[in-house]
Specification:
Layout (H helix, E strand, L loop, with lengths): L5 E5 L4 H12 L3 E6 L4 H9 L4 E5 L5 H15 L4 E4 L17 H28 L3 E6 L12 H21 L4 E8 L5 H4 L4 H10 L13 H8 L10 E4 L7
Helix pairs in contact: 1-8, 3-4, 4-5
Length: 249
């Protein structure tokens, strides 16, 4: 499905990003595993399975780091076909009412979750143009379609990601670059499983879905891969909710 596609995944040293990188590599993609943390272990695992990956330590809020991330991917793979903007602040965020959120934390969430995807796209677009086009996948959340308390900063940032997708397609369509969004439900990544009290909530969350089970990171591989693949060559500006039918939109 992704044979020979050259794909950058941010926030990919662990969690959902790591699962996406491994899944894409199994589909034949060459993956750039990008993160603030050292992605070396994952790159080694992907390579030991006979697939191709490079690791890049980069801060998505830094213009220089984003440009370097793209340049190193181009140098290693000969081009960039896809970008998944997965890096975000979520699992470590405390649940707080709207008027209890620290304004400095609000700014940090916006810096990583909104500015980060913009800078990554800004850096990747020229590289995609050089190979004739490409695909960008943004990661939002199903929370923005229903409204939930306790994470207003996160929800506002992910609403911004969806709005960014809808605006970017108007500017990038003429360059043969598609932009789509996946909106997962609460996914049992390492960070989520480490949250206090998550064990008490898992059952109720699963029961509210049409497919009544926990959502796993693997559930996101196929939807994201579809948007990155040639099968979605005429699909842009769309948001796919991936949450087992908890929310329909």
């Amino acid at each position: 499905m992704l044979e020979s596609k050259r794909i950058i995944i941010t926030g990919a040293a662990q969690g959902i990003g790591a699962v996406l990188a491994s899944g894409f590599a199994e589909m034949g993609a060459k993956v750039a595993v990008c993160d603030l943390a050292d992605p070396g272990d994952l790159v080694q695992r992907i390579g030991s399975d006979g697939n191709e990956a490079i690791g890049i330590r980069a801060d998505v809020t830094s213009v220089d780091d984003c440009n370097r991330m793209v340049a190193e991917t181009e140098e290693a793979f000969g081009g960039v076909d896809g970008l998944v903007c997965n890096a975000a602040l979520f699992s470590a965020l405390p649940i707080k009412a709207y008027d209890e959120i620290d304004p400095e934390l609000w700014d940090e969430v916006m810096r990583v979750n909104v500015k980060g995807p913009w800078l990554c796209a800004r850096a990747a677009v020229p590289a995609m143009e050089r190979v004739g086009g490409g695909s960008i996948v943004m990661v939002s959340t199903n929370r923005i379609f229903r409204g939930y308390p306790g994470l207003l900063h996160y929800d506002a940032s992910k609403g911004g990601v969806l709005a960014m997708t809808r605006s970017l397609i108007r500017e990038l369509g003429p360059r043969n670059i598609r932009v789509n969004t996946i909106a997962p439900g609460l996914t049992m990544s390492e960070g989520v499983l480490a949250r206090d009290g998550i064990g008490d909530r898992k059952g109720a969350i699963a029961a509210a879905r049409s497919l009544s089970r926990d959502q796993e990171p693997d559930d996101l591989i196929g939807p994201a891969a579809f948007f990155l693949s040639d099968h979605a060559g005429f699909v842009t500006g769309q948001c796919l909710i991936v949450d087992g039918g908890g929310i329909t939109h």
